[in-house]
Amino acid sequence: MADMPGNGDDEVPVLIVGGGPVGLTARALLERWGVRTLLVEKRDELSPFPRSRLVNVRSMEIFRGLGLAGTIAAAAFPPDYGRVRFRDTLHDRDFATAAMVGVNGPVPESPVTGALTSQDRLEPTLIAAAEAPVRFGTELLGLDPAEDGASVVASLVDRRGGAEARVRARYVLAADGANSTVRQLLGIGTVGPGAMGDFTTVVFDADLDRWCARRPAGVYFTAHGMFAPLYPEGGWAWFVPTPEDAASADWPGLVSRALGPGAVERVDVSRVQHWVMNAFVAERFRHGRVLLAGDAAHAVPITGGLGMNAGLSDAHNLCWKLAGVLNGWAGPGLLETYETERHPVAHRTLRQAVANTRLMLDVQSRRREQLQAGGVTPDSVELPWSERYFAQLGLVLGVTYRSGAVLADGDAPPGPDPSDSGTDYVPTAEPGHRLPHLWLAPGRSTLDACGEWFTLLTPDPARWTPRAGAPWPLRVEPLPDEHTDACGLGPHGALLVRPDGHIAARWHDRPPGDSALRRALAAVTGSAPA
After folding, report:
1. HSE of 371, CA atoms in CB hemisphere, 13 A
2. What's the CA gap between 288 and 292, in Å, rounded?
3. In the beta sheet, which residues pair with residue 195?
4. Taking CA 260 as the corner, what is the angle to CA 258 and CA 264, rounded to the nearest 5 degrees?
5. Rounded distance, CA 513 to CA 362, Å?
6. With a threshold of 0.85, does the pTM exceed it?
């Protein structure tokens, strides 16, 4: 941890509170934009627990943009682990199984494949992705608006030495988890079921190869809890409701009994973590110059692996907007679109995670009914979902934004909010949607054309030359003629794509007047036309 300052206030454009995947990703994204940050984390080190384990295709696209996808994939499980299996005990045969579509292999809708990797393997990669300072063992005590109204003053304490300090920040990005200190300090309430139960994760070593090596999976659901392999080289986790006598529990014995009679000779428990499964969405994601992201803004049940991934998309949505305001090419009103865009996604994610949990419980209920019926027990249970449903690509890749940072085709006002599209995903180049993945050249996707700039994709670059001296970062990218129909473009049309890969505006053909692009950029960023 860096030394705590002694006199006066440290000053930084963005203070990030929370050193999990969302805060660390925000730190890396903002550094790419040239925005200085300070990240504070009350823990003394990165989390030693596996916690979140699924990096979906959209998150891997974000990491591809940061140049991290290859490193993350190299430390992850092979694709054949991208599957869930249902068993009576771990050493029984499967009575049902389902693929994690987009993790068990590539999908045509994305240039990347998702990864199954534990959070304690992901975080070191993320912290190495930026050089901005990180202060571990530093707890936030208070937040107060500065007298000038142009910043926030954060009061911090070194949990080990007790030294106190203050940091003045233009903005605070709160990614400090479901029990967010920032959210509580600001008095922001939550809606949703709330705490859904106490759970325990037991990290252990045992030789389970003969039960699992030939039928690998990322998760095994059993009648005695959920088992998950942790690392390609070994290690397991057992997820179970916390027993009443947790403080005196014989965890090796409990794990052995849950595995089933004769499954293993020895179980070595290395860590035990108790936690609460939460399900809520914050009533608002912004309070003045403080913005909530990740579990601080929305906590969802773990089934389906949606929580961390939703938080990473929060950071991706927010960081380019913070950079625009701080670097002067966007108006402060652009930050209002963060909540407008991400709040509905959080509610939809929560609904989906709750539905996933109910479906998993339904599978177990069907199996219990089979076992209780007597006679010959069937070998399988019909799953209450389709493989297309379980992919959830409609939620992962099909998020649609409606806000002032999205224009209807051309520069008309935005249309009504879209209804839930379920779990199906149909690529579209309509404004508000993620830019469809199309190959511009071998190994180079349309999504690779996005970065710390706006991208104008057009089959006719010569007619879309941007005006010199405009304040917005903008690159013009040639679109091969074979992709114009997929993008809904004529021979002179164009897509204006935001830095987060979502389409800001579309012109089916060249619009009248040379000012249309400038007016669109000004409208999207909430700034004055150049």
Report:
1. 10
2. 11
3. 278
4. 100
5. 59
6. yes
